[in-house]
Amino acid sequence: MEYDPDTNAFSGTYHVGLPQVMWHITDVCALTCPYCFSTKSGLGTEVDKLEPIVDRLKQLGVLKVDFGGGEPVSYSQFGEAVDLCEQRRMHLTVTTSGVISPKSRGWLLTNHNRFARVIVSMDGTSLIHDRLRGRIGAFREALALLVDLIGDGAKVRVNTVITSAVTREVMGGLQRELDSVGLSEWCLIQPHPSNAKPTFEDFAIEDAKFRDLVASVRGTRREEMKVIERPRSAYVGYWTLHPGGQMRPQTTGPEDGVGFHILEASYEQAMLEIGKVPVKVPTENGVK
Ligand code: SF4
Questions:
Q1: What is this structure's pTM?
Q2: Residues with CB under 6 A from ligand 1
Q3: Which fold has domain 16-287?
Q4: To test ligand 1's pocket by mutation, which of 36, 145, 161 has the most ligand atoms within 8 angstroms of CB?
Q5: What is the position in ligand 1's atom list of the atom closest to the CA of 99?
Q6: Least confident of 62-76, 190-204, 242-256
Q7: Atom 8 of ligand 1 has which residue's CA nearest to it?
Q8: Whose CA is nearest to atom 7 of ligand 1?
Q9: What is the domain partition of the chain in residue ranges?
C-alpha cells in the first residue's frame, strides 16, 4: 500500500501493519463542541514518550499520521512531534480549529508545507459555527487562518461536521464563504458517536439528511472545488492514538474498541490487535 500526499489518498491493497493513525496528541481544546469525538481527558502526550511512540508507530507500519485532538497545534511540543515523524519518513496531516495562540499560528504558517494537508474545521456560517463551538469569534479566527494558509500556497482542506443545526441555507452560506477565499477541497462529515457527550444526539443527523445536504453542496459547487464525503460508517476501523498511549479502533457506537497500549504492548501483541480490525484508509474513490 502507498500513500500519495498530493491526493491525500492511499492506493494498493497489501500492507503489513497499520497504514495510518489518528494521533490525538493532546485532548486539550479551548472549545466545547457538543458533538466532539475527542475523549477531552485534559491530557497531553507525555513529552518524554514522544520519541518511543513515533518509533513504535514506524515499527507498526504507519505511513501517515493525522494529528488531531484536542487542538494539536497548541500542544507544547508539537514541532518536536512533527520533527520525529518526518525523520522517520512518515507523511503528516493536521486538523486545527484555528483558535490558537499567535505563537502557534505563526509556527503553523511557517511550517504548513510539512503537511500533506492542513485541515481547518468549520461547521457552519459565522453565527452557527460560533454557537456550536461555544466561542464568539471562532469562525473569524478559522477563516482568517484559512485565508493566510491559502495565500501562502498551503495544501488546505476544510472539514465540516454537518449537524442538526445546519440547513441547506447554512451550507449554501458557508459554501459562498469558502468559494470567495478560493478553497479547493472540502470534506463533509456526518457526526460519529465515538466518545459521545450527553449532548451528542441533539446534534446527530440521519443518513438521509446527510446525503441531502451533501447533494445540495455538490449541486452548486465550483468546478475547482473537490467535495469529499465521510458518512458515519467511513471511520469505523480507523485507529486513534490517545494522549495516554492507548490505541483504540473506532466502532459504529460510542465506545471505541479496546485496542492496546502503544508502548506497553509487545510488537507481536500490537500486530495481533491491529490484525483483528479490517484496514480502513481513504482512497481516491472514498474509503476502503
Ligand atoms: S474543536 Fe475539535 S477537539 Fe475541540 S471541542 Fe470541537 S470537536 Fe472537540
A1: 0.95
A2: 29, 31-33, 36, 38, 69-70, 97
A3: TIM Barrel (3.20.20)
A4: 36
A5: 1
A6: 190-204
A7: 36
A8: 36
A9: 16-287
Ligand 1 atom nearest the C-alpha of 95 is: 2
* Cα-based distances in Å from 227 to 20, 59, 195, 214, 286: 22, 34, 27, 9, 11
Burial 241-268 (b: 16+ CB within 10 A, else e): bbbbbbbbbbbeeeebbebbebeebeee
In the block, which residue shows the cell 447554512? 170
Atom nearest to 68 CA in ligand 1: 3
Quote the ligand 1 centre to 154 CA distance (angstroms): 22
Q: Over 80: is that where the pLDDT of 127 sits? A: yes
pLDDT in tens, 4-51: 999 999 999 889 999 999 999 999 999 999 888 888 888 999 999 999
CA of 132 relative to ligand 1 center, distance in Å: 10
pLDDT digits (tens, 9 = 90+) for 189-204: 998 877 667 787 888 8
Q: What's the CA gap between 166 and 43, in Å, rounded?
A: 31
